[in-house]
Amino acid sequence: MKTVLVPTDFNVESLKIIDSLVLTNKPEMLNIIFMHAFKLSDSITDMLMLSRRSRDYEMLSDEFCEKMNTYRAKYPKDIQMMRVEYFYGSTVAAFRNFIDGMNADGIAYPKGYDFNPIHKSSIDPRLLTKRCGAEVIELDIHEFSGEERLFDTKMPAERKRVVSV
User: Fold this and answer.
1) pTM
2) Are 71 and 82 in contact (CB under 8 A)?
């Protein structure tokens, strides 16, 4: 079983990486953890309330959650677990601890990943992932994202022979 961290800004388009992950890791089962990184606040009040981060989960749109459930149903034999986690910190050492805590085998980015902060405390995960020592791969999310692109099923039309007299 392989566990993969996928940095995300909770854009529904970013979920297309699931197709690429599943198809490039077959027949291995996957645990996929979508993560977003936040810098820790200097405020003592924010630090005391760190365990009550339900407002961070409010940033998840219903559309994002529904699409995740669609992918769970699409790949029931390939995905054992899929969830969202938040990383709070800004040091590589803290991020390594997060990776170890998640039992992650690697980190996957969509090819051409463009960081979009969702909050004023959001930090670019590439600052952490390029120095953390974990395997980092880039996958083309458009290569496998449409089943209609996997196989060309059109049959050629029969040709009628015209006989001239």
Assistant:
1) 0.78
2) yes
